[in-house]
Design a protein that fits this description.
- The chain is mostly helical.
- The protein is 79% helix and 0% strand.
- The chain has five helices and no strands.
Length: 114
Amino acid sequence: MSFQYEDDYKLGIQELHQIMPQVADRYNDFTGVCFEEGALSKQAKELIALGISLSHRDENCVRYHVGEALQKGASPEEVWETVNVAMAMSGGMIVSQSVHWVSETISMRNGTPQ
């Protein structure tokens, strides 16, 4: 199976550049700085971006950042551990908030304060 995520992303940026060149240029400059080597390695930043992309359910970004992470030296095991952390965080949010939100809503519907 062949994925064209990088080409699709580039085509989207090119189209944005034709419509709003200043915005596209500023966006590219901003993201470029964000992913530069710093206190965190480029590889670590790609793994963070992967986790966020998974949480946002952004398929193009997931595919893009998996590729970038691997290209920057991440192992498949590191990518999968990132997936596991994203699952834990997304599931944890559901666990931590759902009981409160659901209980509160049921209580409000029944006319009983919590």
